[in-house]
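Quick illustration, no need to memorize.
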Amino acid sequence: MMPAKVWVPLVMIIGGVCWLAFSNLSKANYFYKVNELPAMGDAVYQNNLRVKGRIVPGTIVKEPKPILFTIHEEDVELKVRYVGTEPLPDLFKDRAEAVVDGKMAADGVFEATHLQAKCASKYEAKAPDASEGQAETIKSGY
């Protein structure tokens, strides 16, 4: 039998690791695309959500606060009211991808308490043009 000074710390360590794993899994937050919200029905008003979409150009209104803007995915748009206290991300601008955390208000506007933004296609690789590839093949003789 193991002495108590070995198994007690071992049990505490294993218990701590299990607690961290389960507490972080319960906070894992899948995000929904704007076009997935209509299928959720009334559940959009009852749960905290994380929603992703692109900022519709010309919809950002920073003054007076709260900040208002619209995000979209395909043909579905969602008006957002950012009421968080954190400053706006540097990449928060027209056409940027935005992820907002919050809750749908009774007036149908998503009330976001947290906002993340990612630059629109700035870091995405440009798709090669098929005609350019063919021209290179012809020039090089392959």
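The helical segments are 4-27, 43-46, 130-140.
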